[in-house]
Amino acid sequence: MRKYINNEITLMQYIFLIHGIQIGTGVLQLPQILAEKAGMNGWIPLICGWALSSAASLIIIQVMKKHPQATLMDIMTTYFGKWIGKVSSILLLIYFSIVSFTLIQKSILFIQVWLLPGVPSYIIMFLFSVPTYIIARNGIRIIGRYAELAFFLVLWMPLFYIIALNQNHHWVHLLPLFKNIQQSLMATQSTIVSFLGFEVTFLFYPFLKEKKAAPLGIIIANSLSLLVFLFVTIACFVFFSPDEITHYYEPTLSMLKVVEFRFIERMEIIFLAFYLFILSTTWIPYIYSLAFCTTWLFNKGKSKNYLLLYLLFFILIMYFVVPTFPRNDSLMVFYQKIGTLFSYAFPVFLLIYSFIYYRIRGRITK
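Above: the chain sequence. Below: its structure as tokens.
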């Protein structure tokens, strides 16, 4: 029985959902972080991070294949009982609330710095909440369609970087290649965090129409994100000098300041305005997941009602607690720790447990 037949998503929507989550806010600061930790060989840990995230993604798919119509909460209930299932849903609530709030707050801080410096954060949060509710209230199918639309709407944006590089670039910045490989590999921790987002497969897998293609889809999503990260990182590395890039908090935007036309200046502002489509594909799936887990936990009400409550709650928080970059950085550090455990370590445990569970169950049946 196909439980979510009225809200299924296609393989393309599944790919762009995961890809959109991954490249949101992190890509704006990633080159500076990699330059600090790995120097001009910062592209190497990106490939390592892609390999680890792809492996973790395939493990999640392997776990979900045994329960094609079940979410993670259903699986935890099957393996460990009703109460553990409830506890797991509460833990997921906490995780998705932290992630969605942290990412929305980060986006608001970017908007305040580059676009609307005099506008209070709670006003921007309110403006974000309106389209977020309109899109997410209709379920994962509409969110998937929006992610697909956003991807094609911003396909032309790499032209900004090509124009900037045409005015200033020095390939010698990348030399010598493969210097301090050990230092580069140690920076992989920073890149595996950038690939977070594939963990939503724990919830969205039952909605996928072509489940046999799920492994291929999640590899394509991770690979698309890798291409974006590599393009932006290398573009920043050849544009800025090795010492200069570490002084820019968002080098991906700062390098666009050299792009000017006779009829328009400050192209980085135009870029960020369009980039809002990508930023929104980061937090919308997470906040929908938060509402979905709440609906599952209480087994009553509709997800859109909880969605509205959470958005109002976020507005109130930002009214009473003014967001700052240091506060958001603290949240990001916490999110990265729990995200790494949930996305990379937990799937391995669950796969091993499921193998033992079915081996024991098979012996008892015999």
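DSSP finds 16 helices and no strands in the chain.
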